[in-house]
Design brief:
alpha/beta; Aspartate Aminotransferase, domain 2; about 40% helix; binds pyridoxal-5'-phosphate
């Protein structure tokens, strides 16, 4: 670790700033074990790419899968596979237990009151589209406003914009300061009697900023405004307690928390979820159907029409049990250390301009290199076996706030190592020097 880089656990700062953390979290964090050994559980991380050991720094795009997730999915397909909820046979019962067990795991990860508050969807994008079509259509009308931050992923902009355009409402983005943090006073000023929904990222995918969503949610709820949180970049890195946060809805994707693609979840507060109309119609979401009239199931079934992605849900359940077994405090502590090291490496290279330097952040660094196209930097790093993302990261308004169209993004997970961060820094220095 470089000099002056004593681990400054962001969650200790957050606690001092009055943010609620799950009960016992600080005690656990102080006693957190070492999770570095868990890297051995991820087969994909142990390969050579372009003649060099793979350095996977593209975790904000997606994460690799540990052996217990791969094994759980194989076991499910080899032994227990069936459709759920329907057949009265043994495999249907096993598959249903596995699917509902995954729902219970999601509820536990998020601190929901019950598994009935968890709706399975394909991922964050589908979850937000579902909410725009149900919550949005119920609440938003002509002249109304939806408040979101400048940092949002397109998945948390476009569905709301499509809704707003169809009903004559408008989006009101909250500005961010030079560090890439939202301006709370500007946010407070944007909330009005016209605001129907606030839609916020918990963590920005492009910049790594952790938004102060707790006070933001409290301010909205004090005015009776519904809040949707996009937790896609948070769940694998931060402890999340939806009840402490007070969010009405919290959405995430399984593939960003070491689970498979094709599965994600919406947490919806029970009383609010119960008021939403169905989204897609079909099997499994009904109580009774005639040609004249259909009555619908209670949540969560009301929102899960058709055969769900059962095997992927099983994989997600295994991924959640895996991270909870390691402990979010241990994961957070490790990533905090890696994040500081990453920023130190980049700050040391004169032609690198960091985009987003907020104090409260996860281990994500977004940057541009003077005189170099971001895609060229990404390609050159790939030549060294290092996978980063270069592009607009599906967050064009966020990058344009800093006067750039694209950036290079290095995004870490707990399974990355100090050595990889140093390799990345050394490779980038060589690329910048043109060697
Ligand atoms: N929201 C954020 C903050 C994201 O980072 C992403 C993916 O990068 C999404 C939403 C969309 O997630 P998905 O593509 O899994 O639906």
């Amino acid at each position: 670790m470089s000099e002056g880089l004593a681990p400054a656990y962001y969650f200790l700062d957050a606690a001092r700033a009055g943010a609620s953390l799950p009960r016992g979290f600080l005690e656990q964090a102080r006693a957190a074990g070492d999770v570095t050994g868990a890297r051995a559980d991820f087969p994909a991380l142990h390969q050579q790419v372009n003649g060099r050991p793979l350095v996977w720094f593209d975790n904000a795009a997606t994460t690799h899968k540990p052996r217990p997730v791969l094994d759980a999915m194989t076991r499910f397909y080899e032994r227990d596979y069936s459709n759920v909820h329907r057949g009265a046979h043994t495999l249907a019962a096993r598959a249903t237990d596995a699917y509902e067990g995954a729902r219970a795991a999601v509820a536990q990860l998020l601190g929901a009151s019950s598994a009935e508050e968890i709706v399975f969807v394909r991922g964050t994008t589908e979850g937000i589209n579902l909410l725009a079509a149900t919550l949005g259509r119920s609440l938003v009308g002509p002249g109304d406003e939806i408040v979101l931050s400048t940092l949002e992923h397109h998945a948390n902009i476009v569905p709301w914009q499509m809704l707003a355009q169809s009903v004559g409402a408008r989006l009101r983005p909250v500005p961010v300061d030079e560090s890439g943090q939202v301006q709370l006073d500007a946010y407070a000023a944007l909330l009005s009697d016209r605001t129907r929904i606030v839609a916020l990222s918990h963590v920005s995918n492009a910049l790594g900023t952790v938004l102060p969503i707790e006070p933001m949610i409290a301010m909205a709820r004090a005015r009776g405004i519904r809040v949707v949180v996009d937790g896609a970049q948070a769940v694998a890195h931060l402890p999340v307690d939806v009840r402490a946060l007070g969010a009405d809805f919290y959405v995430f994707s399984g593939h960003k928390i070491f689970g498979p693609t094709g599965i994600g979840a919406i947490y919806g507060r029970r009383d609010v979820l119960a008021t939403l109309p169905p989204w897609q119609g079909g099997g499994s979401m009904i109580r009774d159907v005639t040609f004249e009239h259909t009555t619908y199931s209670e949540p969560p079934a009301r929102f899960e029409a058709g055969t769900p992605s059962i095997g992927d849900a099983v994989g997600l359940g295994a991924a959640i049990r895996y991270v909870m077994g390691l402990g979010m405090p241990a994961i957070a502590a490790r990533e905090d250390r890696l994040g500081h090291l990453l920023m130190a490496e980049l700050s040391d290279i004169p032609s690198v301009r960091l985009i987003g330097t907020a104090a409260h952040r996860v281990a994500v660094a977004s940057f541009v290199v003077e005189g170099r196209r971001t895609e060229d930097v990404g390609r050159a790093l790939d030549g060294c076996g290092i996978a980063v993302r270069s592009g607009h990261h599906c967050a064009q308004p966020a990058l344009r706030r800093f006067g750039v169209e694209t950036s290079v993004r290095a995004s870490l997970a707990f399974y990355n190592t100090e050595e990889e961060v140093h390799t990345f820094g050394a490779s980038l220095r060589r690329i910048v020097r043109g060697r």
